[in-house]
Design goal:
- The protein is an alpha+beta fold.
- It is built from four helices and four strands, in the order βαββαβαα.
C-alpha cells in the first residue's frame, strides 16, 4: 500500500470503487469482454455476499457502488474479481494494481455517485443516453430490469 494511504474498511460503509485496466488500455472495449466482466462480477458478488448498488463497465475502467463483504476485507473480494476477469480474458497485466475507494456515509452521496457512474458512458461520448449502455445498472433503476448482476436498490 502506498505510504500514507489509509483505507476505512470493515466499518459497515458502502464504497464507491474505481479500478482501471493496466496503463488505461481499453481491454474492456468489446461486448464479449464486458459480458465476461459482468459474469465474473456476479459470481464474485454471490461468493463474497456483498451488496452491489450500482456499476458501470467502461472500455478501460470500472465503477462499482458496493457494500463491504461480511467477514472478509473488501480488497480480497476485489482481488478475486480482478483475477477472475484477467484469467478468463487471458490478458497479462490486465489491471492496474490498486483501486480508488471512497467511503459512502449518506443517501445523497450514494445517489450522487450512482448518477455519476451511469452518466459516464454519455460523458465519454459512447452513447447518447445512459439507457443505451447495457453494461451498467442504469436499466435496473430505470426499468427494474434484472440484468446480469443482482442489484440491491438504494
Amino acid at each position: 500500500m502506498p505510504l500514507g494511504l489509509k483505507r476505512y474498511q470493515q466499518e459497515g460503509d458502502d464504497h464507491f470503487i474505481t479500478f482501471s485496466c493496466s496503463n488505461r488500455n481499453p481491454y474492456l472495449n468489446t461486448q464479449a469482454s464486458r459480458d465476461i466482466f459482468l459474469d465474473s462480477l456476479e459470481r464474485t458478488r454471490a461468493h463474497y455476499q456483498f451488496e452491489l448498488l450500482g456499476y458501470v463497465v467502461m472500455p478501460e475502467h470500472v465503477h462499482l457502488l458496493m457494500s463491504e463483504p461480511p467477514g472478509v476485507p473488501l480488497s480480497k473480494a476485489l482481488q478475486a474479481l480482478k483475477i477472475s476477469v484477467s484469467r478468463r480474458l487471458a490478458q497479462r497485466h490486465f489491471w492496474q494494481p490498486r483501486y480508488y475507494d471512497f467511503n459512502i456515509f449518506t443517501h445523497n452521496k450514494r445517489v450522487e455517485k450512482l448518477k455519476y457512474m451511469h452518466r459516464n458512458p454519455v460523458t465519454r461520448g459512447l452513447v447518447e443516453r445512459p439507457e443505451d449502455w447495457p453494461w451498467s445498472s442504469y436499466s435496473h433503476y430505470l426499468l427494474d430490469h434484472p440484468g446480469p448482476v443482482r442489484i440491491s436498490r438504494l
